[in-house]
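Per reviewer request, we include the raw input and output of the structure prediction for the construct analysed in the revised manuscript.
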Amino acid sequence: MSWLVKRRIGRALALAASAWVMCAVPASAGAASNIVTTFDATAPHAVAKGTAAYDITFAVTNFGPDAASGVRVMSYGLGGPIGDARCVSVTSSRCDIASIGSGETVPVVFRVPATGLDSFGTFDMYGYASKDRTSDDGPDARTSDQFELHVTDGTVEVPRVAFDEYPRSANRGDVVRYRGSIANLGSTPLASGSIGFRASTFQSSQAIRGMTISTGAPCGPKSNTSATWWLCPISGMAPGTKATVELVVVFSDPSQSVTSLTLQYMPTGNPYFDADAGAVDSTWVETRLNGGDAADLDVSVASPAAIKATRTGGLAVKVDNHGPSGSRAAQVVLKLRGSGGFVALPANCSGDADRVACAFGAIASGASASVVVPVYGTAVGSVDVDITTSASTFDPIDANDRIGAYVPITKAPPKPLRIKAPKASTMGAALAARRGVPLFLRCPRACTVRSVLQLSRRDANRLGIRARGKGPVTIGLITRKSGKGGRVTARITISRAARAKVARTHRQLVVTRLTTVTARDGAKRVFRQHVRLRPSRR
């Protein structure tokens, strides 16, 4: 076989293999978006006490190939007046974005009003973006971000830590690097302290191999009873300066599916070196380890359109596990905002009127768990509930782990008026003409009584009483408010125009007395009675 024949056969086999590979590539399973959210990194983290308002931009970016639809952006604060931040476009704590195209960034501005800036302190604000399930997030999605605001007198140190680079996913055995930084955004030098890393879900002493800082200071591990930190000392950082730190990590634990790494600045004198004791600023990131268990939890809620004050409605919360693995230690947490009502504790749930946590335990792949949380309306207003689901198993898509429920609390229906009908009366025409028709009743609570005397149109025409329109003719009217003990005593005097003509009649008249009783809460009772007027004697 000549070399030319061999070349042609080889080219044909290559083309056939290429065609087979192209046919074997599956079509895209569906739309894929990749939502990443960030607060404005250039925004000042310190404002003077008494500032009129503070605006912060929260950017929502879609790095995926397809559009993301139905995106809801929310903000909430922890333990401070910054929790009053509202979306500027709709003056509420959330904004809705119909669609975010591939590669598009949509800025959302949240405003902290003056009421949130009238006291000294450090306040954490969180932004969160959630969307419907028409598209899935990729492994690099980051749907929430944290912002720290310092309300000061204008002269204070403001440390700010951040992860500048980190792996969102890694393989077991990989050597990866986390790069962070600390900046002094204040107006005075940074006091002595430490910047440190803590890995919360793997053995730090085995996984962390080393840590360095750009200032050249020595870094090393420091352990306590709850965690192992890798720390680098910080001292005398001038305003506007920045230092970078680098951490080298080896992922070796075969049981892990996700790890959480915290970066934190702590002042000198902190004896515990943990996330809750003495931290001035902190942030965290998660890295997913490929090949581990993963369970995509999806929370949904069915809520009533409205609840009347003093009545009860139910929030039906459901958590679906879309797999591929079963979920361990699953739970759902409901946090109440707004006014007008409170949530109650159903069975297998704990918490208080403002926060309820319900444990589901294990949820198999393809299965679901649900709970109905009662909501009581206490006053006209609204109940705004944040609902979040979580588990100990890694969740590859966190955009569907959070949802909100908004329930208006409307005016309660009035209590029924339990009242006896006023006693009907029969009297002579002369008495009726001069002194009026008596009325007596008793209300169980404060009320207003309106009573009308009406003649039929036929009797009015026969007596020569002229009136416009059609139907009964009004010849007497009173309006009274109930007095002590709810009593109403009055006489309905016949109008001057009809008095003489009614008094001169020689036939019995039947007058309709229409009495309407209205309580302060709007409850009404209407009584229609006939009063017989005897003819006068000749």
